[in-house]
């Protein structure tokens, strides 16, 4: 918590300042950014490999979404021959599937585990690729719904998965930062698909319009991304049940204190209190006990 972090670091600096110049009053406030950096810098140094893993896996998740959605309306209109209304219906059905699948599969991950749930979604999503591409009838409505269901399914546990893997001091930073970096890295998905599409040209459309087999392109791209995600999730880390129980106990304690009417700032300062006391005790222990020497010498003289 922000208040706990700032209180702890303020106490450490106050103790250090008191040990150097005992009669000097400590600073009354400390910059929140400075407190954040002092606590987060060691975490970034120790967990850099985890951060790289999170960015890479978020690149895969974002590529999964882009690969299945960016060229799908073009595929439906130019290659399947659907009207604008039919294309809209199919795309909206897929969006509804993504919302429902993300919600339900995210909830299921609380029982089956984050990685296992997402890996199952990867398997089903890959298996549905032919149904997402090959039909030329209204069966594409169901295909789009279920394909996006499992794409939403791999996204459902992602927020809590990122939070659980991130160190507590970096949790607010890594969740958003790794998502945005992954989104940035996946922004080339449409360009990659367009380049692949040039290798699979179709007969020209009306007025000489160039057409490409984007169905095949999406099948290749999505198949590669599903396998990529499956391997990463299989090899990746996950919070243990013991760690999850500790987080749950801490959350319940926080809610209990909130029900007692305490603010988040008060709770944070109380949590930092024990650490503050320990810091001051350690500093006092380091001071030379010169004020005892006279008493000892007097006792010896007597």
TrEMBL record:
<dbReference type="InterPro" id="IPR036259">
    <property type="entry name" value="MFS_trans_sf"/>
</dbReference>
<keyword id="KW-1133">Transmembrane helix</keyword>
<feature type="transmembrane region" description="Helical">
    <location>
        <begin position="48"/>
        <end position="68"/>
    </location>
</feature>
<dbReference type="GO" id="GO:0005886">
    <property type="term" value="C:plasma membrane"/>
</dbReference>
<feature type="coiled-coil region">
    <location>
        <begin position="240"/>
        <end position="267"/>
    </location>
</feature>
<feature type="transmembrane region" description="Helical">
    <location>
        <begin position="174"/>
        <end position="196"/>
    </location>
</feature>
<keyword id="KW-0812">Transmembrane</keyword>
<dbReference type="Pfam" id="PF07690">
    <property type="entry name" value="MFS_1"/>
</dbReference>
<dbReference type="InterPro" id="IPR011701">
    <property type="entry name" value="MFS"/>
</dbReference>
<feature type="transmembrane region" description="Helical">
    <location>
        <begin position="145"/>
        <end position="162"/>
    </location>
</feature>
<feature type="transmembrane region" description="Helical">
    <location>
        <begin position="216"/>
        <end position="235"/>
    </location>
</feature>
<keyword id="KW-0472">Membrane</keyword>
<feature type="transmembrane region" description="Helical">
    <location>
        <begin position="116"/>
        <end position="133"/>
    </location>
</feature>
<protein>
    <submittedName>
        <fullName>Carboxylic acid transporter protein like</fullName>
    </submittedName>
</protein>
<feature type="transmembrane region" description="Helical">
    <location>
        <begin position="88"/>
        <end position="109"/>
    </location>
</feature>
<dbReference type="GO" id="GO:0035879">
    <property type="term" value="P:plasma membrane lactate transport"/>
</dbReference>
<keyword id="KW-0175">Coiled coil</keyword>
<dbReference type="GO" id="GO:0015355">
    <property type="term" value="F:secondary active monocarboxylate transmembrane transporter activity"/>
</dbReference>
């Amino acid at each position: 918590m922000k208040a706990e972090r700032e209180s702890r670091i303020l106490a450490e600096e106050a103790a250090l300042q008191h040990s150097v110049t005992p009669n000097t009053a400590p600073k009354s406030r400390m910059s929140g950014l400075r407190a954040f950096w002092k606590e987060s810098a060691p975490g970034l140094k120790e967990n850099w490999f985890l951060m790289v893993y999170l960015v890479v896996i978020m690149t895969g998740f974002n590529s999964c979404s882009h690969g299945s959605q960016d060229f799908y309306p073009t595929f439906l209109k130019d290659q399947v021959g659907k009207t604008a209304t039919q294309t809209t219906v199919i795309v909206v059905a897929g969006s509804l599937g993504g919302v429902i699948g993300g919600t339900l599969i995210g909830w299921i991950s609380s029982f089956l585990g984050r990685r296992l749930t997402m890996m199952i979604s990867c398997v089903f999503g890959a298996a549905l690729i032919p149904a997402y591409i090959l039909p030329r009838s209204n069966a594409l409505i169901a295909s789009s719904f279920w394909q996006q269901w499992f794409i939403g399914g791999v996204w459902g546990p992602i927020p809590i998965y990122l939070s659980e893997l991130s160190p507590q001091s970096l949790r607010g930073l890594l969740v958003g930062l790794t998502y945005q970096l992954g989104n940035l890295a996946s922004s080339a998905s449409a360009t990659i698909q367009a380049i692949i599409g040039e290798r699979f040209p179709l007969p020209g459309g009306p007025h000489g319009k160039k057409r490409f087999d984007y169905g095949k392109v999406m099948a290749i791209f999505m198949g590669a991304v599903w396998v990529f995600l499956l391997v990463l999730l299989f090899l990746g880390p996950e919070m243990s049940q013991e760690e999850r129980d500790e987080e749950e106990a801490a959350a319940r304690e926080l809610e209990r204190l909130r029900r007692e009417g305490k603010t988040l700032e008060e709770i944070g300062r109380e949590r930092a209190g024990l650490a503050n006391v320990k810091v001051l005790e350690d500093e006092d222990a380091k001071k030379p006990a010169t004020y005892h020497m006279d008493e000892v010498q007097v006792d010896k003289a007597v």
